[in-house]
Write a structure and sequence with these properties.
The complex is a heterodimer of chains A (about 100) and B (about 250). Chain A has about 100 residues and is mostly helical. In chain A, about 70% of the residues lie in helices and about 0% in strands. The longest helix of chain A is centred in the last third of the chain and has 26 residues. Chain B has 2 domains: about 90 residues, no CATH class; about 160 residues, no CATH class. Helices cover about 85% and strands about 0% of the residues of chain B. In chain B, helix 10 packs parallel to helix 13. Chain B is globular, with a radius of gyration of 19 Å. The chains are: A mainly alpha (about 100), B mainly alpha (about 250). Chains A and B meet through helix 1, helix 2, helix 3, helix 4 and helix 6 of A and helix 2, helix 3, helix 4, helix 5 and helix 6 of B.
Chain lengths: ~100, ~250
């Protein structure tokens, strides 16, 4: 069996379904939109679970901090700079 | 695993979920979590969108405080609010909705967009992983850090598949998002990144959901490109990592 996360497979299935449907389905959006809108609260149990791993984080705090803060800044800058040069403007009539 | 085994597996985990949640403690802690969340949304409005007033951050702190004060174990809390956690599954699948909506834009922007997203999808995780590698951190942490630029639900699932730690993935991802949301404006000014598409794509691919929220504040086009970046990078990285490392 594929080592893919189940939710990713579900996501791809829903994507395929929408391509087959072609016309947008209000029922689909009515069901999905609240989930997307309030997604933040769904992470709370997982994030609190980190308390269990606090010792691991603490031992490697410097590395993790540099990895997250440092590389995010560098990557953001690099990608922004690259995109600035690579992307041509969107076609006119796209509305600002 | 056969189909019947898979079904039995699903049945057992559903039963376990419901028995954990359908208790008085379950209702109480779910309620506390939701109230804390409403407070965090309010604080976000009051602070006019300051990225530090991130709903996840504030809610986590509030609930964490309650847990500490009541001396309640985190593991039990997680069982009791299992329903909230379970909803991450459908929420991840729901990401397909904005992805489809953005499809036309992907086609318009063509190979240039794909190239940018792919490069971003490689630079961000590899550099972060590299830092941990140089510091000789435990492998599980290294693998978890590889998922830091995918949107949270996908990051958690993917990290589980590559022997990382889902709870930590969620933390790394959100921290990445907050860092990016804070530095983006002055970073862009410094590097002269003025094209809205460029600003958006970078925020979306490197800082996913939180970055996209910031991008939406910066402008509609910035936000649209960020959503695109978020979705594409999320799917591509989530597909690639397990194939490479599972």
């Amino acid at each position: 069996m594929l080592p893919l996360p189940g939710t990713l497979v579900g996501l791809l299935l829903l994507l395929a379904f929408q391509f087959i449907q072609k016309r947008p389905s209000p029922a689909l959006h009515a069901g999905g939109a609240p989930l997307l809108k309030y997604m933040s609260v769904l992470f709370i149990p997982a994030v609190l679970g980190v308390a269990v791993y606090w010792q691991h984080i603490d031992e490697n705090l410097l590395a993790i901090t540099i990895a997250i803060v440092g590389t995010t800044i560098v990557s953001l800058g690099a990608v922004g700079w690259l995109a600035q040069r690579v992307l041509k403007p969107l076609p006119k009539g796209d509305g600002e | 695993m056969t189909l019947s085994e898979a079904f039995a597996d699903w049945w057992m985990s559903s039963a376990k979920l419901l028995t954990g949640v359908a208790t008085l403690d379950g209702v109480v802690w779910t309620g506390i979590t939701l109230v804390a969340f409403s407070l965090s949304i309010a604080s976000q409005k009051v602070s006019r969108g300051n990225p530090l007033a991130n709903p996840v951050l504030v809610t986590t702190l509030l609930v964490g405080l309650c847990l500490l004060m009541s001396n309640h174990k985190v593991e039990e809390y997680q069982q009791q609010v299992g329903l909230i956690h379970w909803l991450l599954g459908p929420a991840t699948v729901a990401l397909a909705l904005p992805m489809y909506t953005q499809w036309r834009k992907i086609r318009e922007l063509g190979w240039r967009l794909v190239l940018t997203v792919v490069l971003a999808g490689i630079i961000a995780p590899i550099s972060a992983w590299g830092v941990l590698f140089m510091f000789d951190t435990p492998t599980a942490l290294q693998m978890t850090m590889l998922t830091k630029s995918i949107t949270t639900p996908l990051a958690m699932d993917t990290s589980a598949k590559i022997q990382g730690v889902p709870a930590l993935a969620a933390v790394f991802v959100i921290a990445t998002g907050i860092v990016g949301a804070i530095v983006a404006p002055c970073l862009y000014a410094l590097l002269n990144v003025t094209l809205p598409q460029a600003q958006g794509v970078a925020l979306g691919t490197v800082c996913h959901a939180v970055g996209t929220a910031k991008a939406l504040q910066m402008g509609e086009r910035v936000g649209a490109l960020a959503t695109l970046g978020l979705c594409m990078n999320g799917v591509l990285t989530a597909l690639l990592l397990p194939l490479l490392f599972a």
